[in-house]
Each structure stands twice: as C-alpha cells, then as structure tokens.
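>> received
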Amino acid sequence: GEEVAEAGGDGPVGVFVGDVEWTDGVSEGGVALARVQGDAQYIEFAGDDHLDITEELTLAAWVTLDAHPAGDQANKGPLYFKNTYYLQVEPPDGTLAYYFYDTAPEGYHVSSVPIPTGEWAHIALVWDGSVVRYYINGEQDPTEIDQSGPGKSTPGKTLRVGGEDGACCPRFFVGAVDDLAIANYALTE
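>> returned
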C-alpha cells in the first residue's frame, strides 16, 4: 500500500508523497525514499496531539545511505521534520543535526560522528528536557548539547519523514528507513 501506521494504532496514518517504495529493511519491509537529491518523496503524517511533543523527545530510526549528502546546505537530508523539531543528515560528512524551536539555546546543533554508508545504521536523538544526546548504532556521540524547554507547540502542523518541502527548503532524505520511532520521553541508552 501507500500508507504506514503506528504499531500501537493510536497515532496518525502516514501517507506516501511522491514515488516512495517498499524495500527490504532491517525488520521485514522498509521504505526507500528519494534516489536523487531534490526528488520530492516523503511520508506525511497529519498534525495531531500525538506528535505535538514539547517537553522531552526521542527520534530514532534505522537508516541506510548509499553515500553522504554532497554539496551545500540545499542537500541536507531531513529524516524528521515537523516545524517544531527536526532531525537531518548533514552534507558533506553525514553527521546528524537537529533544531528544536523555542528552546534555549535555540539553534542548529550538529553531531560529530558520521552515519556509516552502505549498511543499515541505527540513529537516535534523545532530549531529556535539559540535555540532547545523539546515538549511532547504540554508541553515544561525544556531542552533548544543553537544551532547556519547553519547545514550540504546533499540534496542527504535519510531520514529514524524509522531506522538508517548504518554500524555503525543498530538501529530501536520500536512502531507506525502517522502524521509525518517536517518543514523548527520553529513552535511555
């Protein structure tokens, strides 16, 4: 089909936008997103209270990249984008970056360990309300960011997995994803 749903059945249904395809994943089927930088392919979840997370947050997924994004900032690879919080893969070295709106210090923060290419890798961003940590394949990145909240509340805004298709920033994740996870609390290591 062309939809994905939360495992528990309580959250919104995600609808495929563009030429999103099912592929082999880590656990059964995964989803292949854009094959070419700039192709508009992503999964869109309607805004609702489940995704309006402002106090603590965990964003995690299995991802596979053929290569790190090349070029300038126009080629960032957004994995999660909600206009409240986002997590993406940075060019040119494949590190992770996030932004939480209305937190202190507000800003754009980048990890120091690149995501491996050519294989499935588990990535996670965890915010416990005071510190942000990145994890790649279960190992904590040495970068930690002091970050206090709450973050910006936008219950009506959509969540996009794999794309930021706004007027300012038509950017898309190039690769495949599996076992996406969003939690309104900080998972432990």
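>> The mean pLDDT is 89.
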